[in-house]
Amino acid sequence: MKPLFSRGSSASSRAFLLIFIIMGVVVVGLYTDRLEPVRERLSFLVTPFYQLTDIPRRVNDWRKGLFVSRADLQLENDHLKAELLIHQRKLQQMASLAAENVRLRQLLNASEMLQDSVLIAELIGVSPNPLSHKVMINRGSSAGVFKGQPVLDAFGLMGQVVEVSNESSTVLLISDATHAIPVQVNRNGVRVIAEGTGDLNRLSLRHVSANTDIREGDLLVSSGLGERFPVGYPVAEVERVVRDPGKAFLTVTARPMAKLDRSRHLLLVFENRDQAGKTQLLNPRARAASSVSGGGEQ
Fold first, then answer.
1. How would you class 184 by CB atoms within 10 Å of its CB: exposed for 0-12, middle for 13-18, buried for 19 or more?
2. Fewer CB within 10 A of the terminal residue: the chain, N end or C end?
3. Are the beta carbons of 244 and 224 closer than 8 angstroms?
4. CA 21, CA 128: separation in Å to the nearest integer?
5. Which residues, given as ranges, of the chain have pLDDT below 50?
6. What is the DSSP string of 183-212?
7. Counting Cβ atoms within 10 Å, is residue 180 exposed (0-12), middle (13-18) or buried (19+)?
8. Is 171 in a helix, a strand, or coil?
9. Residue 166 DSSP one-character state
10. Contact call for residues 147 and 280 (beta carbons, < 8 A)
11. pLDDT for the residue numbered 84
12. Tell me, what's the pLDDT at 276?
């Protein structure tokens, strides 16, 4: 009698049974956590084999790093220096932009406090003559700029427009030796004339009587006399008052409030322009008086 299963069929049956068991293990491992401990133990046992097979790659990397040529090192060093210079330049630009942002915020705050219409301008040039304190701005008659127009920065009065072209204008600073402006002491209203001295950081007060109530630290503001400069804009702060018993007048010097040597963005003021223009056209004497009282070069 022949056996039910031959040797060949017995081997195939065992193979089929083994495949079935493997598939069962795979299914159990995919859909259950029962084989997780076994997987962890196997990974622990297999890790050393992975490390051994990775040794040739690590040895090759170590060899490449050890035998880098001097030319490659020099090339990499030059590349890093170039990148450093680029980043330093960007950092410098960021610092400059941050500082300019602060200045523009100050200017914006100043323009919000003004009751008059203003136009923002940017300084584009400075007179090369050390005896003439003039600057050039990027606004001209096309933007409505006119001769005699007051110019301020974020801190105080800077000067007035003396020359106008289509796209640019020239501003005479209050520190120029030919400029004078009527001011008053903010504390008590005493009126005086502040003259430029040719020094960006110093103004002189003309003909201040010996009995005038003026002190160091007093704020001088524009008085509005002559209808050239609007009333109440900061002009200077009294720095020094010298009383000489043998003289009829005090020696008084003041420091301009505006940053005459630093400000880049300026404000052009349009206070009562139309009314002042009509007055000057109808009355030549008023125009001449305004020119003398406003001071400065026309």
1. buried
2. N
3. no
4. 97
5. 1-2, 4-5, 273, 275-298
6. EEETTT--EEEEEEEEETTEEEEEEEETT-
7. buried
8. strand
9. S
10. no
11. 76
12. 41
Task: Give per-residue burial for 83-105: e unless 16+ CB within 10 Å, then b.
Answer: eeeeeeeeeeeeeeeeeeeebee
Among the listed residues 202, 228, 71, 91, the one whose alpha carbon sits nearest the alpha carbon of residue 147: 228
In this structure, what are the phi and psi dihedrals at residue 249, rounded to the nearest 5 degrees? Answer: -125, 150
210 neighbors 246 (Cβ within 8 angstroms):
no
C-alpha distances out from residue 12 to 18, 22, 24, 137, 207, Å: 10, 15, 18, 99, 126
Parallel, antiparallel or unpaired: strands 202-209 and 219-222: unpaired
* Max Cα–Cα distance, the chain, nearest Å: 155
Start-end of H helices in 67-210: 70-113
Which tens digit of pLDDT belongs to each residue from 101-154? 666 666 666 555 555 678 888 899 998 888 899 999 999 999 999 999 999 888
| Six-digit token string for 17 | 């049974």
Q: Residues near 137 by Cβ (< 8 Å), separated by ≥ 6?
A: 121, 122, 123, 124, 151, 168, 169, 170, 171, 266, 268
Partner residues linked to 255 by β-bridges: 237
* pLDDT at 283 (0 to 100): 37
Nearest to 138 by CA among 168, 107, 97: 168
pLDDT at 30: 66
Which tokens hold the place of 153? 């920065």
